[in-house]
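User: Hey, quick favor. My workstation is busy. Could you predict this chain's structure for me?
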Amino acid sequence: MSGERTEAPTPRRVSDARAEGRVARSMELSGAAGLLAGVWLLQIFGQQMVEGLKGILSASFQSVSNLSAPDLGAQAGALLPLIPSLGFILLGVMVTGVSVNFAQTGLLWASKRIGFDFTRLNPL
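Assistant: No problem, here it is.
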């Protein structure tokens, strides 16, 4: 038999496939949307992050001659102001990915897809 179907699937087959998590969705669309969101958010928060990194680097290079273990901890603490900017970027990319997948499949919770299937492993 050929792989092409001549008739549309029955509503029962469609609902069974959806319940098993077998739905058509594009991984490339999610990746492209996440990439665009990341670039856009970097344009917004990137300058702030670069200025923070410049300050950290200049302070590190000025105090490199008299470094001790407590100073290293203080320099690591200097990275804390970068966390909000980085958090907004990561959160924005994550929300974009979830939104694109939701737009493609709708609200879909397929518990059968969560399990691990050993038959899908290929040792070669």
